[in-house]
Design goal:
The chain has 5 helices and 4 strands, in the order βαβααβααβ. By secondary structure, the protein is an alpha/beta fold. The protein has a 4-stranded parallel β-sheet with strand order 2-1-3-4, sandwiched between helices.
Amino acid sequence: MPEVFISYSRKDKDFVASLHQALAEQQRETWLDTKDIPPTAEWLKEIFGAIEAADTFVFVISPDGILSEICQQEIMHALKHHKRIIPVVRRE
């Protein structure tokens, strides 16, 4: 299972693709919802499972990410499972 879970707003997907690539170049495995959820899966269950399995939770901060109900659920799940949380400011 990947060691880094990235939480973000879809409006920041281009930035997240670059972040994913930069982490891959440093031999860090990342989990992204656009790549790692099977088509027939219960997506929220898959997301929560990936958060639980990851060592690190990265939250890409942007106005859209902060307002996202799903991002808020992901953050709360990461906190509940005592994950190391790394905020990355994308847009103020």
